[in-house]
Specification:
Layout (H helix, E strand, L loop, with lengths): L1 H53 L5 H25 L24
Helix pairs in contact: 1-2
């Protein structure tokens, strides 16, 4: 019976180790994706403001191009919104902890 318990605990320990590694990988990917989206949203925001400043003195052709680019910016912002829906959100209720361990409900 003790041999079975040891093998079960060993198996569980290995499974937990793999789980933690995968969780760290996913967390890293989510952070990288979130950072990339944030940077791209800032770039789009800056571009949108630049286009707004150009509108008053734009020729009819340039105005049409500005409208088209503005429409594409809105579409891209919607894509980012959809992507962010699948990423974890930071809020004031969840405390960031040091270490490689994710906080559990009993940690609060």
């Amino acid at each position: 019976l003790k041999l079975t318990q040891r093998s079960l605990l060993g198996s569980w320990g290995e499974t937990h180790k793999v789980y933690r590694q995968k969780l760290e990988e996913v967390t890293g990917l989510q952070t990288a994706c979130s950072s990339s989206i944030h940077r791209q949203k800032k770039t789009l925001r800056d571009l949108k403001h630049s286009l707004q400043r150009c509108k008053p003195r734009a020729s009819p052709e340039e105005f049409a191009l500005i409208q088209e680019i503005s429409s594409q910016i809105k579409e891209r912002q919607n894509v980012f919104f959809d992507m962010e829906a699948y990423l974890p959100k930071r809020n004031g209720c969840v405390l960031r902890r040091g270490g490689s361990r994710a906080p559990g409900i009993l940690d609060f």
